[in-house]
Amino acid sequence: MRKTAIFKDELFLQHIPDFNHVESPDRLRVIYEQLEQPEIQNRFVYPSIEPASQEILALNHSMDHIMRVAGTAGKTFSSLDPDTQASAQSYDAACLAAGAVVKGVEMINAGEVDNGFALVRPPGHHAETDRAMGFCLFNNIGVGAHYAVEHLGLERVLVIDWDLHHGNGTQHSFYDSSQVLYFSTHSYPYYPGSGGLNEVGVGDGEGYTINVPLSGGQDDRAFGLIFREILVPIARQYNPDIILVSAGFDTFYADPLGTMAVTEQGFAYMTRVLVDLAGEVCDGRLLVALEGGYNLQGLRDGALAVLAELAGDPECPGKVDEENLKAIDDAAPGMTIVDEVRSIAKRYWNM
Length: 351
Known about the structure:
Layout: E1 4-7, H1 26-35, H2 38-41, H3 54-57, H4 63-70, E2 78-81, E3 84-86, H5 90-110, E4 115-118, H6 140-150, E5 157-161, H7 168-173, E6 180-187, E7 209-214, H8 220-238, E8 242-247, H9 264-281, E9 286-290, H10 296-311, H11 322-330, H12 336-345
Parallel strand pairs: 1-4, 4-9, 5-6, 5-8, 6-7, 8-9
Antiparallel strand pairs: 2-3
């Protein structure tokens, strides 16, 4: 078994967007309720977390943007974007969400825990350096990746984004850098409209953005194939110092915003691939952070499946049956997109 940290806080439930907004506190509440069960709770560690300071947030964001979000503090309702709102404690929650990822990066890099899951909200991967967007106030993974490079001195950070939506903010933050390799699977064309095949980075970052734009209906086997055939060979060559994951559960087959057909078995499978990969290339250093996902069953079951794989605990509730994982591993569906991505990636990587 591995020592897996869960980064959580009740403050994340106090970010309350507009009435009936899909990005609601219930998204975390259903997961937190499961973590209170003794048979689950006692298998993990729960480090204390602190909010990211404005100085840390400024590693990824303009000060104008930070102050714009800070200006919402204490106000019942503020609109930052057509679909992105803040309530009285949203600024504090967003600072704590970014701080949770920073704390996870610190602890994992120091060897205090093997890996971790930041169960936070608001999510982050759509937030640009200078604006809130797509339910996201600050880019949690973006801040964490910058922190890893600029404060901890890591040379190579691999960011994997399996959310339904392309992480435009994260891609743009590192588009000209080879210090962060951004790999995304996402529905396309779909919100936010970025993430096409030919978006590969610029300057020093050319070849360090890998987009896998997908048509709707892709299932566990499809994502498994993409991870095995594209992600793993590139990641081995990149040889990262740490792996960060933007884990969206809106690819779940019943997600109200979704177009995909992934089950909790698929989330478990992707996590296992990443756990094995991290063990091979960076001494197991792996941090997962919650992004989207709006079907409460999919969130609950997907998060528990991810946690069971992170911990490597065969008795952990939520653990997916091994035969189901083997079926994904054995499957080899034909996918034109794999060949298309490979044809572009081989300009930069041995494929």
